[in-house]
From TrEMBL:
GO terms for biological process: translation. InterPro entries: Amidase (IPR000120), Amidase_CS (IPR020556), Amidase_dom (IPR023631), AS_sf (IPR036928), GatA (IPR004412). PROSITE patterns: AMIDASES. It comes from the Bacteria. Keywords: ATP-binding, Ligase, Nucleotide-binding, Protein biosynthesis. It catalyses: L-glutamyl-tRNA(Gln) + L-glutamine + ATP + H2O = L-glutaminyl-tRNA(Gln) + L-glutamate + ADP + phosphate + H(+). The lineage of its organism: Bacteria, Bacillati, Actinomycetota, Actinomycetes, Micromonosporales. This is Glutamyl-tRNA(Gln) amidotransferase subunit A.
C-alpha cells in the first residue's frame, strides 16, 4: 500500500481527482502522522483535527456532486501561525496573542479554502517572525527532522519541519528576510518567496510591512508552484498588492523539469560565491552550479557590491517598521492583558502587558527600531538604510542586464545545534546574509535542495527580477531534476 503522506501534492491532487483516494482519507493519514511524530518534531502550535476533517468532507461531497474542483482540492496544508485563520487560534508564536481567535481569514487563507485545500493546523515560528531558528517561539522550539538536536531554521521552522517530516505535503510561510528560504534550505525542502506584492499581506500579523511576503513551502518545485498560483494575484485589500496576474509559475516548473536550460544565463554573485559560507556549503553550491551548466545554462559572473550592506540595512529597516506595527499590542485590543486589577492605570496595564507578553528578541527589535526612528537619529540610521536599499535595487537591476537569474547559497551554514546561537544575536542574524538582498529589492527568490554537507541539507538560492517568478521556478525545477532527491532519516 502506498504511504499517502509520502506523496507529493501534485500526486495527491491527481489521485483525489481520479477518486482513488478521498480527501477524508488523505487528511486522516496526515493527522495520524502528526500524532505519531509531533512528540519529536513539534512543528505545530495548534492541530485543527475537526476543522480539517470537515473541510475534507466538504471537498469529497462537492466532488461526489460533480462540482469542478482545482488541482489541489482535498490536499492538506499546514499554515504558519502568523496568518489569521477565522475562529482558529493565531498567536504569531507570541504569548501576547495567546488565546486570540481572529474574526476573519487572511486573503491567502480564503483563496486556499476556495481551492479546496484542507488546513491541518498552525505551525510554530519565532515570535512575530523574528529569528532564524524557531527558538524564539514563546511555545518552545521545533526540531529539525534530519537531526532533532538541530534547529529547523526560522522564522518559519514549523512549516518547513512539517513538510520535511511528512506531516503535511504543503505549508505556508512568510519571508521578511529569509524566513521561507532559510528553513527550506536547512530541512531539505523547497521554499519560495514570491515577488513582494505578488501575494497578499491582508491578514498577516505584520512584522515589517515593506518586506513581509507570504509564500509556499513544499517538497517539490512543482508543488510550490501549484500553491503559489493559488495564493498569488491582486488583492484590493492590500494597498501594496500588484494589480497584475501571477506569471505562469506552474508551466515554468514543468518546463524546468524537462532538464533543458539552454539559453538561460545564470549570474553568479561574486560577493556571495562562498564568502562566509561553511566549506561544505560552498562545495555543494559549486556542484549545483556545475549541474545547471550541464543542463545548458550559461554562467556569467556579476558583482553586487552593495549586497554587503544588506544585513545592517535590514536590521534598521525591519526593527523600525516592527516598532510601529507592534504598537497595536496594548493589552486592550488583542490577547493578553496584565495588571488589570483596578489598581493600575491604563498606561501601567499596557506596560505590564508588553513586559510580560513579548520575548527578549521582540523587545530588542522594538527598542532598536524606536531608537532608529527617533528625532535626531532618523536620517543617520533609517534614512541611510533606505539609501542602501536603493543601491541594492540598482545592483540587482545591473546584474539582471547580464543574467536572467542570480544564484547563491541560501544560507551560509547547515542546521546548527539548538542553543548554539541564541546568546549572540549577531550570530543568529548571519543566517540571513544571502537571503536579505531579495527582500530589500522586492524580487522573488527560491531555495531548492542542493545536496548535503556532513549529512545535512544545503539549499541553492535562485533570485529573479520582480514579477519574473516563473524564471526561478524553471531553474529550480531543472536542478531538482538533475540531483538525487533528499530524504530525511526515519523519525
Ligand atoms: N531571520 C530574519 C529576522 O530575524 C528574517 C525573518 C523573516 O523573514 N521573517 O528578522
Amino acid at each position: 500500500m502506498t504511504d499517502v503522506t509520502k506523496l507529493t501534492a501534485a500526486e495527491l491532487g491527481r489521485k483525489l481527482a481520479a477518486k482513488e483516494l478521498s480527501a477524508v482519507e488523505v487528511a486522516t493519514a496526515h493527522l495520524d502522522r502528526i500524532d505519531a511524530v509531533e512528540g519529536k518534531v513539534h512543528a505545530f502550535l495548534h492541530v485543527d483535527r475537526d476543522g480539517a476533517l470537515k473541510a475534507a468532507k466538504d471537498v469529497d461531497d462537492a466532488r461526489a456532486k460533480g462540482e469542478t474542483t482545482g488541482p489541489l482540492a482535498g490536499v492538506p496544508i499546514a499554515v504558519k501561525d502568523v496568518i489569521t485563520t477565522k475562529g482558529v487560534p493565531t498567536t504569531a508564536g507570541s504569548k501576547i496573542l495567546e488565546g486570540w481567535r481572529p474574526p476573519y481569514d487572511a486573503t491567502i487563507m480564503t483563496r486556499m479554502r476556495e481551492a479546496g485545500l484542507v488546513m491541518l493546523g498552525k505551525t510554530n515560528m519565532d515570535e512575530f517572525a523574528m529569528g532564524s531558528s524557531t527558538e524564539y517561539s514563546a511555545y518552545g522550539p521545533t526540531y529539525n527532522p534530519w537531526d532533532t538536536t538541530r534547529i529547523p531554521g526560522g522564522s518559519g521552522g514549523g512549516s518547513a519541519a512539517a513538510v520535511a517530516a511528512y506531516e503535511a505535503p504543503l505549508a505556508i510561510g512568510t519571508d521578511t528576510g529569509g524566513s521561507i528560504r532559510q528553513p527550506a534550505a536547512v530541512t531539505g525542502t523547497v521554499g519560495a518567496k514570491p515577488t513582494y506584492g505578488g501575494t497578499s499581506r491582508y491578514g498577516l500579523v505584520a512584522f515589517s510591512s515593506s518586506l513581509d511576503t507570504p509564500g509556499p513551502c513544499a517538497r517539490t518545485v512543482e508543488d510550490a508552484a501549484l500553491l503559489h498560483a493559488i495564493i498569488g494575484g491582486h488583492d484590493p485589500r492590500d494597498s501594496t498588492s500588484i494589480p497584475q496576474p501571477v506569471p505562469d509559475v506552474v508551466a515554468a516548473a514543468r518546463l524546468g523539469a524537462t532538464g533543458d536550460l539552454s539559453g538561460v544565463r545564470l549570474g553568479l554573485v561574486k560577493e556571495f560565491a562562498g564568502d562566509g559560507a561553511e566549506p561544505g556549503v560552498a562545495a555543494a553550491y559549486r556542484e549545483s552550479v556545475d549541474a545547471l551548466v550541464k543542463l545548458g545554462a550559461e554562467v556569467v559572473e556579476v558583482s553586487c557590491p552593495s549586497f554587503k550592506f544588506a544585513l545592517p540595512a535590514y536590521y534598521l529597516i525591519a526593527p523600525s517598521e516592527c516598532s510601529s506595527n507592534l504598537a497595536r499590542f496594548d493589552g486592550v485590543r488583542f490577547g493578553l492583558r496584565s495588571g488589570d486589577d483596578g489598581k493600575h492605570s491604563l498606561e501601567e496595564v499596557m506596560q505590564l502587558t508588553r513586559e510580560e507578553g513579548f520575548g527578549a528578541e521582540v523587545k530588542r527589535r522594538i527598542i532598536l527600531g524606536t531608537y532608529a526612528l527617533s528625532a535626531g537619529y532618523y536620517d543617520a540610521y533609517y534614512g541611510q538604510a533606505q539609501k542602501v536599499r536603493t543601491l541594492i535595487s540598482r545592483d540587482f537591476a545591473q546584474a539582471f542586464e547580464k543574467a536572467d537569474v542570480l544564484v547563491a547559497p541560501t544560507t551560509p551554514f547547515v542546521a546548527f545545534p539548538l542553543g548554539s546561537r541564541t546568546s549572540d544575536p549577531y550570530q543568529m542574524y548571519l543566517a540571513d546574509l544571502y537571503t536579505i538582498p531579495s527582500n530589500l529589492y522586492g524580487g522573488p527568490a527560491i531555495s531548492v535542495p542542493a545536496g548535503l554537507s556532513e549529512g545535512l541539507p544545503v539549499g541553492l538560492q535562485i533570485m529573479a527580477p520582480t514579477m519574473a517568478d516563473d524564471r526561478m521556478y524553471r531553474v529550480a525545477a531543472a536542478l531538482e531534476s538533475a540531483l538525487p532527491p533528499l530524504t530525511p532519516p526515519a523519525l
